[in-house]
Amino acid sequence: MKTLKIAAIPGDGIGKEVVPAAIDVLNTISEIHGGLKFEFTEFPWSCEYYLEHGDMMPKDGLDILQSFDSIFLGAVGNQHLVPDHVSLWGLLIKIRREFEQTINIRPAKVIKGIRSPLLNPKDFDLIVVRENSEGEYSEIGGKIYRGEDEIAIQNAVFSRKGTERAMRYAFELASRRKKHVTSATKSNGIVYSMPFWDSVFKEVSKDYPDISTDHQHIDALSAFFVTQPDKFDVIVASNLFGDILTDLGAAIMGSIGIAPAANINVNGKYPSMFEPVHGSAPDIFGKGIANPMGQIWTAKMMLDHFGEEELGTTLLDVVESVTNDGFLTPDIGGQYTTKEVTDEIINRLKTFK
Ligand code: NAD
Ligand code: IPM
Ligand code: MN
């Protein structure tokens, strides 16, 4: 029997609705499989926790998480209680950085039964490899107070190691797919980081002669997502470009409520963290209508990560059969609740051949 110890952090807002749903799904998979067991430990770390304790997680929070095989997180953020940059840097970004989860993998494709705004959604099937630990997200900068001339300076950080690591990851991934990598750049307007990014990309690509490449400025690339989706296989992007691109990708998938993601610790020193693309969705929290599919697809990525690709594929097939038969939450044009969609997935998993 393989037992996986998972730290569950539902977090804020709809994270508290979709994480329990996905846990029910994972427990069903374990019942069916027999040889695989999940041991979930839930942590209430969130903005409410902050109000009580003055921090998003306990001082030894990372030590606690270190003993788990992976982290399964919903979403973080409740701006009414805690400023976003405080809550996010105190929990989500803290875990990503301290646990060296330097790569964020974000697949995007359109599955059956879901309406995409694209005319030719079948062509949209790609993976964004987002650099997850540096880039435009930095704590380096400052504010200079000079009355009307007040200035805020925010520095971006692009290390050779971090840039190369994200790019190599993208090439390796592409070698198992359609063998094409697109680099998201902006070297026409940004004079230090992006020309550097381009030169590293050029160097790394020489090690992968079988993989074709192109590079696009992020503005044009965003437009090509919509107008020429079949251009893409794997896209490597900086932290911010990857963030924006994957909300666009999610919209093309039909809803941000569907899109999955994985924060990967590539050196194996720390647990990886599985957390969907979407946020805490305060506008729908408490209504029971959050789409659980993003969290459930994220669970599929966690299964893949643990070498259980067959189970992962089964799970996504079942999700797709459910959407294909019209069991949809309101964000994708349906009338079903989080619970109804989740129960349908669970019931079909039990009888899936
Ligand atoms: P959001 O993703 O929470 O919501 C954007 C829109 O998408 C909203 O209309 C929301 O209702 C909808 N939506 C999101 N997930 C959905 C789902 N599963 N089902 C149906 N509809 C869904 O983004 P936002 O409004 O920019 O951010 C809200 C809060 O979440 C902020 O505090 C933000 O910082 C935080 N956030 C956290 C994460 C994370 O923890 N990974 C990611 C993004 C945003
Ligand atoms: C995401 C989110 C986070 C990010 C925010 C909430 C800090 O948008 O995971 O996509 O930008 O990384
Ligand atoms: Mn985002």
UniProtKB/TrEMBL annotation:
InterPro entries, per the entry:
ICDH/IPMDH, IsoCit/isopropylmalate_DH_CS, IsoPropMal-DH-like_dom, TTC_DH
- Cofactor field: Mg(2+); Mn(2+)
Q: Which UniProt keywords apply?
A: Manganese, Metal-binding, NAD, Oxidoreductase
Q: What's one Pfam family here? A: Iso_dh
Top class in the EC scheme:
oxidoreductase
Q: Which domain of life is it from?
A: Bacteria
Q: Which Gene3D superfamilies match?
A: Isopropylmalate Dehydrogenase
Reactions mediated catalytically: (R)-malate + NAD(+) = pyruvate + CO2 + NADH
Q: What EC number(s) are associated with this protein in UniProt?
A: 1.1.1.83
The GO terms this record gives for MF are: D-malate dehydrogenase (decarboxylating) (NAD+) activity; magnesium ion binding; NAD binding
Residue ranges constituting the Isopropylmalate dehydrogenase-like domain according to the UniProt record? 5-345
Provide the family line.
Answer: Belongs to the isocitrate and isopropylmalate dehydrogenases family.
Checking PANTHER family in the record gives: D-MALATE DEHYDROGENASE [DECARBOXYLATING]
Its name, as the record gives it, is: D-malate dehydrogenase (decarboxylating)
Species lineage, top-down?
Bacteria, Bacillati, Bacillota, Bacilli, Bacillales
